[in-house]
Structure formats: C-alpha cells, structure tokens
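Please, structure for the following, as tokens.
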Amino acid sequence: MAKDKKKQPRPKAETPKGFRDYFGADVTERKAMLDRIAEIYHRHGFDPLETSAVETVEALGKFLPDVDRPNAGVFAWQEEAVPGGGSGDWLALRYDLTAPLARVAAQFRNDLPTPYRRYAMGPVWRNEKPGPGRFRQFYQCDADTVGSASVAADAEICAMLTDALEAVGIARGDYIVRINNRKVLDGVLEAVFGSIENVAHAIIEGNPTIAEQKQAVLRTIDKFDKVGRVGVCELLGKGRKDSSGAFIEGVGLTDDQIELVIAFLTAKGENNEQTMKNLAETVATSPSGMQGIIELDEIAAMLKAMGIGEDRAVIDPSVVRGLGYYTGPVFEAELTFEILDDKGRKRQFGSVAGGGRYDGLVERFTDQKVPATGISIGVDRLLAALRAKGLAGADGVGPVVVTVMDRDRMADYQAMAADLRAAGIRAEVYLGNPKNFGNQLKYADKRGAPVAIIQGGDEAERGVVQVKDLVLGAKLASEASHEEWKAQPAQTEVPRADLVDEVRRILG
C-alpha cells in the first residue's frame, strides 16, 4: 500500500515585506487627486505617457548589474535565453518614471515633437530596505519637458506645480515652491576649492581628492534643514556628535571655507531681488555661479509675469536635491502647515514634490545633448497631506443597497438596481443569504450605504417600495427623542415608479 503524500503547507496569506494592498477609499481618493492633477497638466499642453513597468537594466542605467549584486537597488532578473524567445538580457521593474522617459525620448526621437511635454502616473519599485512609511512599491506623478534648454521650461514646470497643488485643495499660504540652481552651488564650490591644489584637511586616510571633498560638502549642505547652521558648520569642520552620541567625522574645511558655504546657505533675503544680490556677492568670481544667478533671475521674472507671486514660488539657496543628477535649476514643493508627529509634537508637513533640470540623461542613449527638466510628486505623501488637512480620507459614500425579501423575485430587485444605475446612482443588489434581514442591513452598514430599498411580497402586490434613509436613521437612533423620531421617520413608502426620485431626494 502506497504511503500518503506529505501534505503541503498552506501558503501564508500576507503581503511580501515592504509591500501593501490598497482598498476602496485609498484607490478612489488617489484617483480623484491624480485626475485633478492630470487636468492641470493637460491644460498646460502636456500629453500623458504610459511606459512599460519592465525595462532593461542597461536602459535604467542608475543600477547597472555587477558580479556580486546584479539586482542592486532594483527588482531585477536575467531573462532566459531561448531560441526565438528571450535574449538573456537583465530586466528590472522601473525604479522611477524619469529613466523610462529618457529611453522613450531616445527611441522615438524622430516621431515626437520637440520639445516633448509629457506627464506620467503610476507605480514604481525599489529593492530597498523597507521601514515606517517606506515601501518597496509606491506611486509617482511626473511631468517633464524634453528638448528645451530654455529656463522658460523650468519656470513653466514651477508654475504648473503651484496650479496642481491648488487644484487638489492645498490653499495658498499652506505651500511654497522653492527654487535654486545647481550652477550657483557649483560657483560656491569653485570659490571654496578653486585655488586649492591639495586639500590639507583630509577626512580619511590617503588624502581624498577635491572631487571627494566636494561630494562631502554637498551631502552636508543637504542636511541644513535638519541640523541648522551650527550643525552644518560642525560637519563642514571637524565633525559633531549626533543625537545618539556617536561622533560623525567632519569634512575638514577651514573656517574661511566654511564661511563661504554658510554665506550661500543663508543668502535668502526678504525678497527674490535681495536673495539674488546676496548670491551674486557669494559667487562673484565664478562664471558658472553668475550664469546660475542669471537663470534664477529669468525664472523669477517669468513666474511674476504668469501671476505667481513670491508667496507661492520663491528663490531659496537652501534647496539641495540629488545634486549628481541635476545640471541647472532645481525646485522643491514644501507644505508649510503643521501636523502632529507620532509623539504628539507639532512639526511642518514638509516636502511633497521635487525636480529640476537634468540635461545629461537622454544623452546616454543618443550621445547628443538633449536638455530636459521635470518634477515628480510623491503621490502617497501628497494624499497624506490632504487627509491631514481634512481634504480627503472622509468615509466614502457606498452604494444604495437593494435588499432581497424573496429569492424568487431576484429579477425585480435587479431591475430596481438597474433603474438607479441608469439615473447615475451607485447601486447594488444584496447577494448573500436573504433569510436574515438584519444581516442585510449590517451588510449595508459595512458598505457605507446611504439608502436601503425594501420590497416584500405585500409591497410588490401594491406596487410600492420602502426606502430607508440609513444616514438619517443612524442619526435619529443616537440623538433624537422618541417624539422626534416619530415626526421624522427615516423610512418612507413610495410607488415603485417613484423609486429613483425618492432616492435622489434623500441623496440630495
């Protein structure tokens, strides 16, 4: 007699680590928000683009495979090489929406208009360690202009971003788009390192190159908002202790060098004109830095002409983004209203979007200069901001539920639901076991149904239906006296022909 096969263990019903599921309200609210943003982008002349979720790792470029970690940073796999099928290429899920755009711009350069304005919305995947609020799959919403070297394209992106934030409900005064220029920062670095042959203050053994010192300075500047002036001075100098007490080695700059960097970071004046003047004094000896200031001045003038005041978009030298990526203007949208953190402390909500000019990305494919600029909105973060302001996250209204009193009359109930849907009213028929009417009302409550439709045999013979206002019923049950409940009943009887009109009245 053969032995019984070993019973296979049941699979675990759980999402992979770092991933999550999105249910009704999450999906609905996100779609509503993105639809409003898409309308703004469309109005500015941008076309939608949907690219493949899978790209070759070579095309993605940022995380090229190596011997030890072929999938570093991305979810990647090698395609099986088979006759007439796969070629053995390394493939990966896209980690952002910009790298696919660069591939599209190169692949279809003879078909696309120049400049090419596009927006894209969708999920991206990153093979990184997950943490609180940090997932391996998340949504992005991008808008880019490829093929224009004019800073008018950068100004247009910034203006469009302010319109998009207001379109989703963020009020003026609750956000600011801050603008800087990589060229200005390059000018600061020239002022700091230009005359130095050998860096005397090494932070590692072996005398780091000036290029390495520059990268260390850039990383430190990016911490200005977190550690403030004193913290940045310490990190640019000998180092400092962090909140845990651990000592962080400094960059090793002299006091004079540190003062130049701080002058740049604190150059923001009462208005754009004063900020530009302060910056010019900081980078006066740098042609690159002065070119960056000219570009910022042009952007500020164009924004003003478009009706974008400094209360909505402002020149701010403290904006530092992924600086190896950008080549010119950079921008960041920050929400300025306060929320409570996990410990009940007030803090500013912070950044929800960022971008800038990246003139070298398409060149990887074409070996030709192709200027580009764009913005990326963190979809989940912006949605969280809307919920924090009470602009999203309210319980969604569920469908009208047609209850079933007689299983043999299912066609009649389906006809009621069809009539409601034809009138633009969301409706469904209860499809569970109809024996227990209480369970049907519990189901309607769980669905967030505003109205329940009831028709038993007696009502059917008389050609009427019972329409139960579930919202009013719940309110009366919790707040009203017995007399009030009698004077304002939540359930009414109407002719079957008046069903749609009665439901419309209740829904307002």
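The chain has three domains: 54-93, 150-358, 400-507. The chain has 18 helices and 18 strands.
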